[in-house]
Amino acid sequence: MIRLHLTLESFQSVRFLEGPLPVVELLGALCRLRRDARPAGHFPVRLRPPRPIRPLFDLFSARGEVPDFLVSRRAEIGSALDDLAALPADRVRADLAATFRLKRPAGWLHDLASGSDDARTALVKAVEEGYRGLVEPQWAEIVATAQADLAQRGHIMLRQGVARAIGSVSAGIGQLGNVVEIGSPADRDLPAPHGLDFVPSCLAPETVVIPGGPGEPVTVVYPIPGVSARSGPGRSSGDGLSALVGARRAAILRAAVVPRGTTELAVQAGVSLSSASEHASALRNAGLIMTVRAGRKVLHTATELGASLVRASDARLCDAR
Asked: Do the beta carbons of residue 25 and residue 202 sit within 8 Å?
């Protein structure tokens, strides 16, 4: 468990940032690729990452941890790369030692810890290539999905307060007095005298806590609930959600667990565009879907209540099988 200790003043500085963070999304994409490598470190041909990106996998320890210096709070990839290039050598060395402990890291990381300019250049290039190849092609969708989630958190904060907004982020995040507790294998206490910044992520597989520097808040990156969920119209006759709202509206609501445009809802639910719009409107009036504009696109996403109904219904379906 990670415990973030707030003061009364810093509790008032809890924010939900615009997000997402490009380097954190990259690390999430790398985690997913590592998970699919079988045996460990050997990727199927279809998943094999480009050669310039492969050195980044050396930065993961056997426990799946990465050095703290790699986890950037920057909202722009250019600024993150500039910070990486300018990091003090002793910070890099200390973070590598903490990550790998007594185990010797890959050869080029040993050079990086020793202050090699070539190794530092290789690191910056690998991070840039990783972002360009794994994250940038889907960046617009990541941003739109994050903005839809943030709109929902803002709605909760406005109606029910900061504490409820924090609790809505994840089942693994809770608050006890002035302490925010985050489920984690690590047992760690962190002061947060300058508040907390919550940032949504589409690709991070779990919550990431980034300690703040002097005068900076602690950053909590949370996976957007439901992003990895699979939606579809084909449900059994024992589907309680269909019994409650009707089969087509249940399909629309399941599709909206991931923020989608009206056309995407129609495709996922297997209905016409006009039908998808009509059902989305009915679900919105019932408080099960919210609709926000992201640029030129209108996105529909399940509210906290709607997502809870989907989870409860699908859990019963799984148990029945």
From this structure: yes
Q: Is the pLDDT of residue 152 over 90?
A: no
pLDDT digits (tens, 9 = 90+) for 233-256: 334 445 567 777 888 888 899 888
Q: What Cα–Cα distance (Å) separates residue 307 from each residue in 126, 161, 249, 267? A: 38, 20, 13, 19
pTM exceeds 0.90 for this model: no
Q: Residue 306 corresponds to which tokens in the numbers above?
A: 């709607």
What range defines the domain where residue 121 resides? 22-137
Q: Are residues 143 and 132 part of one domain?
A: no
Count of domains for the chain: 3
The identity of residue 120, as a single letter, is: R
Two tokens, residue 3: 């415990």
45 pLDDT higher than 50: no
Specify whether 131 is located in the same domain as 168: no
Task: Quote the CA–CA distance of 221 and 127 in Å, as a whole number.
Answer: 19
Judgement on whether residues 90 and 47 belong to the same structural domain of the protein: yes
Q: Kindly state the helix (H) or strand (E) to which residue 145 belongs, with its residue range.
A: helix 139-160
Reported as a single tens digit per residue, the pLDDT across 215-225 is 888 888 888 86
Strands (E) across the chain are located at: 2-5, 15-16, 173-176, 179-182, 188-191, 196-201, 208-210, 218-223, 289-294, 297-302
Eight-state DSSP code of residue 134: I
Tens digit of each residue's pLDDT (9 = 90 or more) over 64-93: 888 989 998 898 999 999 999 999 999 999
Task: Identify any residues that bridge with 180 across adjacent strands, giving them in sequence order.
Answer: 4, 175
